[in-house]
């Protein structure tokens, strides 16, 4: 089990990226959602020991994050960073072998060879194994990245924005890969793409402005949004307490989806939200509440 | 195992980049070109027989700096922030520490670099072997490769890898380096100001200066083909290298910067940037005027802050600091050591309380030296001597010169109490009771040590300034940059793997008769400096020597002894000689083919050259009794090939400046400088005679010291001619255009090392003089001059005596050649033949195009006989002549025996013989 306890991070220039995040990862796949600048990458960096938190504690499978445990913790982690690019000049299989050697994978030469090929087969790169990896397409590079993250049989996998920029076919292929993996080890999937989460994650964490706002099943998030999301054919002028979610095109033409408590706005009709809309609505409401709470001391 | 994998990946990754491929390709092409150029172009034309070192050392001169550049190019390749971004996923889940990663990367780089650096030496050795000169001394290769290639490559790879890791980019690393370089100078000055001593961060050991010298030599050589061999310096000593000496010469200049490189790599491990540290935030107000700057600053601070959790990184940095401290400590300790020795010598030389030297009547009658040369250059000696007092007064003490590095383990005198005082190279033995007139005393001494002659690294206005003057300047220095770094002092051991040179004092104490006071130099040196003069009184004694040497060492002494055939590890013998001139020399030499009078020892690869030199030396030894009236047979000679002193900082030294190489003669031992020995031309008989026999002739007469060299050369040449070993037609000189200037130097002003003067011009003048006055009359005149001190003591007086003795006017001869440096060039012109009745008339002119009065013979050859005529042609003068003969003239020839001194050029030579037939 991986535990983050009251993790905060403030950068040297004063930017607060995380504020008291608590997170516990046991098994299966956990999706991490959040807008740009929410602190996702900071959180992942702290999680994979790439960044020291300003406050809080980390523990990994019972090992507290101490200097003594660092090497052992690192051995348990697999990580595919957002901006992954393989080492220029190496072929796919050479790259994987380098990773295996550096991580001291305890296998004989033959066994390691078999494992490399098995991994390449698993990520469907066997046919391109001997080609220079830096000339792979984006999707191939991500799949190679996944293979490197798994080469040392980690106990926990962190995947940061793996499907960004991929075509639908590649996205689906990648999603399937990590879904299979999540049956064996806990996987943290950080992404912008709600559809990926919807398709793969039984648990979802939403982070915004450095705070963990939601941690639970996607259905619970959708449940929260249920009854507060409305379809209005046109946006009324003036502030009517509406929180804009987005514009949608459906069979009846263009309409606007807004959040408005439990009573319908003028001309509005209740709709069943998608996870993306539920998330947007949730974030919008959270943002509004946050603004209100900031404004209230002044008004009082 | 992991290291081997990293090495493999380093190789793959470097090979994938154009930069590494290009750098390595250029490196190999350039460095392998040097021995190839030596093999293909230089070998057939070189004025010396090139040995293996001639292939290797010039290569090394280029390769050393090229290796540093290659190390930097490869270490900077795929290093820094951008490269690490690619490597981060590789390392992120690794249990390896930052230091483990960076140090392994460095080791992999070094393991990649080192085999590349081996290629040029291997090529050089293969070519040398193909040329018939396989390498004789493995240490030359091993030491030079290790100290000049491997360590600079490893350290520069460490330095650059560390700097790029810290700075993130190579540009940043270059900036850091520049700032650091300036800072280190400040540190040096600061240390000096506070401690009075300093450590310098030399970069010479990285080979840039050597590379510059190589480039300069090459460009000069190509620009001036006449000086090609001199400038390019193809000749390199094949003498063995002493690793200990090499290390002692290398490390004082290298350790400080080497320590810095270890420190940089150690500290850089904390900058691999795998786990960014959490820094305290600095909040900058929204309206702060420097908000952008402040935020940028904080971002930079975050970027360049070392990583977090630096357990092993702290260890690595600690190792770096410790290494640096050790390096600096070693250098400072060495500095202090030599400062102490130099101060001791200075105080002794400049102090007022000199030991009183021994009066001339106190002399040793016999002297026995028994001992052993131990491996590592230590001497273990026992000396037994009998000293008697021939003075009218008792001698209360004895004074000796002894090498300061020889410890006196014990000294005893029979029936006398003795007490000793020792200071630097001086030893005073107080006798109680004093040695009375006519009394004798038997001494026994036991000594041990490693005799050395330290070459203190103290700057002076002139290189040739004496130690006392230089050290005085050092003590009175005002600025740190004037401070000499005594750590760079070279110990110059008397016994090394390269050569053995045991002179007076190195084999035990030698009685001192000459004062130890500082004395101005002889006028002929023309350079400032006061020095303690060497011993000038050399009473002879009966010397017995019995010295055991380690296996592989060959030595000879100035009595002509060499290791006996019965016991090849023992030098044994006795002779009558002066202890102050007794010398033992040798090294890792091997016996070469010798004659009955000459035992020759050469470097292992040079035995085939011995025959080349033995002939001349044998002739001189055999004919020595004919050299001069009264000169005795020189007897058997021990002849050694003598490699230059080991200078690891300039392996060509001593071979490069070949024109300075001169024979050295100590009694019956002749040392031939290696450069002369390997020369295509055998050593000149006159040089050997000059060293071997002249002293025996000149010892009877005090001559003008400033003209001593002129006398030696002059009389030596006469001796050579008497022995029949000189050039039969030496009065003419041929020279290339650029050499004419050297031939036009007055004899009295020519420097000692001027080969064209002493090897060409003076022999020509002696031949001319002999032609004018006759050989016997010339020798008689010189004998008369030498035997009568009232006839003056300079060259003018000598020529005056020859003039008086022979009746031939020689005033112009002296003025033209000794004072003015004239050089006549003669040819015949306007030569015509006409028939006048039944006779033949030949007319023409002798033209002296050069300078100086020339007295020269022309010979008209006719059908029946020759018609000689002597003409005198002055500067630029054209002298007419006319022959009126009966028989048919055939040819007109200028000086057919070539006994008239002149310059012969290709143009003038065509006009020296005019055919008249037809």
Brief synopsis:
The complex is a heterodimer of chains A (300) and B (918). Helices cover 36% and strands 26% of the residues of chain A.
Q: How would you describe the overall organization of this protein?
A:
The complex is a heterodimer of chains A (300) and B (918). Chain A is of the alpha/beta class and 300 residues long. Helix content of chain A is 36%, strand content 26%. Chain A has a six-stranded mixed beta sheet, with helices on both faces. A four-stranded antiparallel beta sheet of chain A has the order 2-1-4-5, covered by helices on one side. A four-stranded antiparallel beta sheet of chain A has the order 12-13-11-14, covered by helices on one side. In chain A, a hairpin with a 5-residue loop joins β1 and β2. Chain A is globular, with a radius of gyration of 22 Å. In chain B, α1 packs across α5, α3 packs antiparallel against α5 and α10 packs antiparallel against α12. The interface between A and B is large, with 48 and 43 residues.
How much of the polypeptide of chain B forms β-strand, as a percent range?
15-25%
What share of the residues of chain B lie within helices?
40-55%
List the uncertain runs of chain A. Answer: none
Q: Name the shape of chain B in a single word.
A: globular
Strand arrangement in the largest pleated sheet of chain B:
4-7-2-1-12-14
Helices and strands, with pairings:
The complex is a heterodimer of chains A (300) and B (918).
Chain A: E1 2-10, E2 16-25, E3 29-33, H1 40-47, E4 55-60, E5 63-64, H2 70-76, E6 77-80, H3 92-102, H4 109-122, H5 138-150, E7 156-160, H6 168-182, E8 187-190, H7 194-200, E9 203-208, E10 211-216, H8 218-225, E11 229-232, E12 243-250, E13 253-259, E14 269-270, H9 275-299
Helix pairs in contact in A: 3-4, 8-9
Chain B: H1 2-15, H2 18-42, H3 52-76, H4 81-92, H5 98-130, H6 138-167, H7 170-195, H8 208-223, H9 228-232, H10 243-268, H11 291-303, H12 311-350, E1 362-374, E2 378-389, E3 395-401, E4 406-413, E5 417-423, E6 426-435, E7 440-449, H13 467-475, E8 499-502, E9 510-511, E10 518-519, E11 531-532, E12 540-548, E13 554-557, E14 570-578, E15 584-587, E16 590-592, E17 598-602, H14 607-623, E18 637-642, E19 664-666, E20 669-673, H15 674-677, H16 685-692, H17 694-698, H18 708-722, E21 732-734, H19 740-743, H20 755-773, H21 775-787, H22 795-806, H23 811-820, E22 826-836, E23 839-848, E24 854-862, E25 866-873, E26 878-885, E27 889-894, E28 902-904, H24 906-910, E29 913-915
Parallel strand pairs in B: 1-12, 17-18, 18-20, 21-28
Antiparallel strand pairs in B: 1-2, 2-7, 3-6, 3-9, 4-7, 5-6, 8-15, 10-11, 12-14, 13-15, 16-17, 19-20, 22-23, 23-26, 24-25, 24-27, 27-29
């Amino acid at each position: 089990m991986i535990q983050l306890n009251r993790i905060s991070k403030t950068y040297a220039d004063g930017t607060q990226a995380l504020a008291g995040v608590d997170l516990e990862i046991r098994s299966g796949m956990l999706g991490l959602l959040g807008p740009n600048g929410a602190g996702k990458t900071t959180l992942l960096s702290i999680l994979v020991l790439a960044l020291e938190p300003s406050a809080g504690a980390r523990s990994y499978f019972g090992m507290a994050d101490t200097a003594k445990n660092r090497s052992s913790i690192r051995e348990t982690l697999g990580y595919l960073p957002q901006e992954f690019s393989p080492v220029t000049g190496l072929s796919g299989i050479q790259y994987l072998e380098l990773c295996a050697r550096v991580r001291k994978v305890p296998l004989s030469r033959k066994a390691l060879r078999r494992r490399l090929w098995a991994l390449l087969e698993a990520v469907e790169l066997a046919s391109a194994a001997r080609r220079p990896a830096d000339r792979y397409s984006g999707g191939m590079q991500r799949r190679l990245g996944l293979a490197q993250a798994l080469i040392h049989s980690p106990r926990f996998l962190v995947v940061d924005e793996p499907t960004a920029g991929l075509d639908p076919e590649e996205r689906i292929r990648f999603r399937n890969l990590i879904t299979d993996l999540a049956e064996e080890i806990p996987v943290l999937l950080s992404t912008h793409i709600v559809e990926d989460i919807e398709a793969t994650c039984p648990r979802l964490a939403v982070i915004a402005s450095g705070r963990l706002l939601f941690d639970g099943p996607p259905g619970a998030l959708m449940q929260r949004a249920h009854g507060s999301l409305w379809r209005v054919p046109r946006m009324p002028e003036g502030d009517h307490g509406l929180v804009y979610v987005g514009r949608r095109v459906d069979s009846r033409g263009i309409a606007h989806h807004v959040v408005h408590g439990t009573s319908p706005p003028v001309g509005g009709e209740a709709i069943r939200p998608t996870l993306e809309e539920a998330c947007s609505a949730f974030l919008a409401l959270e943002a509004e509440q946050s603004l209100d709470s900031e404004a209230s001391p002044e008004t009082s | 195992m992991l290291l081997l994998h990293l090495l493999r990946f380093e190789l793959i990754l470097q090979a994938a980049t154009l930069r590494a491929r290009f750098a390595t390709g250029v490196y190999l092409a350039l460095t392998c070109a040097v021995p190839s150029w030596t093999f293909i172009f230089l070998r057939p034309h070189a004025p010396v027989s090139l040995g293996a070192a001639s292939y290797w050392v010039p290569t090394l001169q280029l390769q050393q700096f090229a290796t540093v550049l290659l190390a930097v190019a490869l270490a900077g390749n795929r290093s820094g922030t951008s490269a690490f971004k690619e490597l981060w996923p590789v390392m992120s889940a690794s249990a390896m520490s930052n230091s483990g990663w960076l140090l392994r990367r460095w080791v992999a780089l070094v393991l990649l670099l080192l085999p590349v650096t081996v290629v040029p030496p291997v090529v050089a050795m293969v070519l040398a072997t193909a040329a018939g000169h396989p390498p004789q001394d493995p240490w030359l290769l091993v030491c030079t490769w290790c100290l000049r290639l491997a360590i600079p490559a490893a350290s520069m790879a460490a330095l650059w890898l560390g700097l790029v890791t810290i700075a993130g980019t190579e540009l940043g690393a270059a900036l850091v380096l520049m700032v650091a370089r300036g800072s280190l100078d400040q540190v040096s000055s600061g240390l000096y100001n506070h401690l009075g001593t300093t450590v310098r961060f030399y970069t010479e050991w990285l080979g840039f200066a050597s590379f510059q010298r190589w480039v300069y030599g090459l460009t000069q050589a190509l620009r001036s083909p006449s000086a090609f061999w001199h400038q390019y310096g193809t000749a390199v000593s094949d003498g063995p290298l002493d690793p200990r000496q090499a290390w002692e010469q290398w490390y004082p200049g290298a350790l400080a910067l080497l320590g810095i490189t270890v420190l940089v790599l150690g500290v850089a491990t904390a900058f691999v940037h795998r786990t960014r540290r959490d820094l305290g935030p600095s909040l900058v107000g929204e309206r702060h005027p420097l908000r952008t700057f402040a935020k940028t600053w904080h971002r930079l601070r975050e970027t360049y802050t070392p990583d977090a959790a630096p357990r092993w990184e702290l260890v690595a940095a600690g190792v770096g600091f410790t290494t640096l401290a050790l390096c600096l400590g070693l250098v400072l300790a060495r500095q202090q050591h030599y400062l102490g020795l130099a101060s001791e010598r200075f105080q002794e030389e400049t102090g007022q309380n000199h030991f009183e030297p021994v009066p001339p009547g106190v002399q040793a009658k016999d002297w026995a030296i028994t001992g052993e040369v131990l491996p590592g250059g230590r001497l273990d000696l026992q000396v037994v001597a009998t000293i008697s007092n021939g003075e009218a007064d008792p001698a209360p003490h004895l004074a000796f010169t002894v090498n300061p590095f020889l410890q006196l383990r014990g000294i005893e005198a029979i029936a006398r109490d003795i007490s000793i005082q020792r200071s630097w190279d001086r030893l005073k033995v107080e006798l109680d009771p004093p040695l009375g007139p006519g009394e004798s005393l038997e001494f026994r001494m036991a000594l041990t040590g490693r005799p050395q002659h330290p070459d203190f690294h103290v700057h002076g206005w002139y290189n040739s300034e004496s130690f006392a003057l230089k050290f005085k300047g050092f003590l009175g220095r005002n600025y740190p940059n004037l401070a000499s770094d005594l750590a760079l002092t070279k110990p110059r051991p008397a016994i090394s793997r390269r050569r053995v040179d045991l002179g007076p004092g190195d084999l035990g104490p030698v009685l001192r008769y000459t004062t130890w006071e500082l004395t101005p130099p002889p006028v002929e040196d023309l350079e400032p400096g006061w020095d303690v003069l060497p011993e000038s009184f050399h009473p002879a004694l009966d010397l017995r020597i019995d010295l055991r040497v380690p296996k592989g060492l060959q030595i000879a002494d100035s009595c002509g002894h060499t290791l006996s055939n019965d016991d090849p590890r023992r030098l044994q013998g006795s002779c009558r000689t002066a202890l102050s001139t007794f010398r033992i020399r040798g090294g890792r030499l091997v016996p070469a083919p010798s004659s009955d009078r000459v035992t020759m020892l050469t470097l292992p690869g040079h035995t085939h050259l011995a025959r080349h030199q033995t002939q001349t030396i044998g002739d001189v030894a055999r004919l020595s009794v004919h050299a001069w009236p009264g000169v005795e047979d020189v007897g058997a000679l021990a002849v050694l090939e003598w490699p230059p002193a080991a200078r690891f900082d300039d392996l060509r030294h001593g071979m490069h400046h070949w024109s300075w190489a001169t024979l050295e003669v100590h009694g019956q031992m002749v040392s031939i400088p290696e450069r002369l020995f390997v020369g295509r031309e055998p050593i000149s008989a006159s040089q050997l005679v000059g060293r071997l026999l002249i002293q025996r002739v000149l010892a009877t007469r005090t001559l003008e010291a400033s003209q001593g060299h002129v006398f030696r050369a002059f009389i030596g040449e006469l001796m050579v001619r008497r022995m029949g070993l000189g050039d039969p037609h030496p009065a003419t000189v041929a020279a290339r255009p650029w050499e004419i200037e050297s031939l036009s130097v007055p004899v009295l002003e020519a420097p000692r090392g001027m080969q064209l003067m002493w090897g060409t011009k003076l022999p020509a003048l002696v031949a001319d003089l002999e032609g004018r006055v006759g050989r016997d009359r010339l020798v008689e005149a010189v004998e008369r001059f030498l035997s009568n001190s009232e006839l003056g003591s300079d060259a003018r007086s000598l020529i005056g005596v020859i003039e008086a003795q022979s009746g031939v006017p020689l005033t112009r001869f002296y003025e033209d050649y000794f004072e003015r440096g004239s050089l006549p060039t003669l040819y015949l012109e306007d030569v015509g033949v006409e028939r006048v009745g039944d006779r033949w008339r030949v007319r023409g002119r002798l033209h002296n195009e050069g300078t100086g009065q020339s007295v020269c013979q022309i010979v008209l050859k006719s059908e029946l006989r020759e018609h000689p005529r002597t003409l005198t042609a002055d500067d630029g003068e054209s002298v007419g002549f006319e022959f009126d003969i009966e028989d048919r003239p055939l040819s007109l020839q200028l000086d057919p025996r070539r006994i008239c001194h002149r310059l012969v050029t290709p143009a003038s030579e065509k006009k020296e013989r005019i055919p008249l037939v037809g």
